[in-house]
Amino acid sequence: xxxxxxxxxxxxxxxxxxxxxxxxxxxxxxxxxxxxxxxxxxxxxxxxxxxxxxxxxxxxxxxxxxxxxxxxxxxxxxxxxxxxxxxxxxxxxxxxxxxxxxxxxxxxxxxxxxxxxxxxxxxxxxxxxxxxxxxxxxxxxxxxxxxxxxxxxxxxxxxxxxxxxxxxxxxxxxxxxxxxxxxxxxxxxxxxxxxxxxxxxxxxxxxxxxxxxxxxxxxxxxxxxxxxxxxxxxxxxxxxxxxxxxxxxxxxxxxxxxxxxxxxxxxxxxxxxxxxxxxxxxxxxxxxxxxxxxxxxxxxxxxxxxxxxxxxxxxxxxxxxxxxxxxxxxxxxxxxxxxxxxxxxxxxxxxxxxxxxxxxxxxxxxxxxxxxxxxx
Length: 376
Known about the structure:
The structure is a single chain. Strands 1, 2, 3, 4, 5, 6, 8, 9, 10, 11 and 13 form an eleven-stranded mixed sheet that branches. The N and C termini lie far apart (77 Å). It is built from 14 helices and 13 strands. Helix 2 packs across helix 3 (34-41) and helix 10 (268-281) crosses helix 11. The radius of gyration is 26 Å and the shape is elongated. The chain has three domains: 3-60, lambda repressor-like DNA-binding domains (434 Repressor (Amino-terminal Domain)); 65-335, no CATH class; 339-374, no CATH class. By secondary structure, it is an alpha+beta fold. It has helices at residues 3-19, 23-30, 34-41, 49-60, 84-91, 136-149, 153-162, 183-191, 241-249, 268-281, 284-295, 314-319, 339-363, 367-374, and strands at 68-79, 100-102, 111-115, 118-122, 130-134, 166-176, 195-197, 202-205, 224-227, 234-239, 260-267, 296-298, 328-329.
């Protein structure tokens, strides 16, 4: 055996012990027998470059340093008030003067204010009240404001509920940084009845297939698995985040910091109970996985046992918390950018500026100069 192979094996075995992973568990994850792994570590069989890659990939799935993180990925809250200024000033703690106003809205609201991807809708209809919507980018941008305000998501959600806010939607995104989830494998388990769930439906899409139109990043979601009905108040969406990062950012799939994403999508009452649990225990791990474990588990088929007695699959057991560090609620603040504002200027302001320039050229009256004189 070459010296460099001996050094590699020693380093590999040391790291396995450092991670606290048994040979049996690692062998299952790598798809080889424990006996074969034992012979490799003892130097009794040669280790190929292909096997080195396979073993290292399997081992990194047990890396105790934050294999999973969780983010808020969608927040929609309705407030029973027509005082949009109060919501923006006291709940969001933003300055309405820095927000752009549009005299149209979505969800049958008649107007809205926004800054970046943070949207606040309003309407004269008292039953509709004020609606806050933060999609993925909006959540990241709002985290920048929370950071500056020295507040957390917990603080904000508490303020919102105390003010009478009604949860309409909450998405919790669990990021898998090491590839412990295998989407095609989970899909196959659904087909083989190795998915034990109260849900009655699942849908899967291969990379490049057209997925549901309401997805924010439908162009680059890779292999995607929906568990549960998209019309229900709770369902899960699991997809290859690494593929999305490759499509959108050009990051090679093997170098992507997030391999997969497991999204818990909650609406109305289910969203409210999740927030209540978060604010009661301040434990993101508890809230997220109590929801997942309530609705689904993946098992390995055992011919001599009833389906309800089949053991959890190794990958799934690891994902839901067996012998790994607890998941933490993290933030990834992103600064507000001018992109959306510039598009608004191009659409709403630039045609008027061109008209004023034409008037100035024909009459010599510089209305734009007069406007700028009076602008604070």
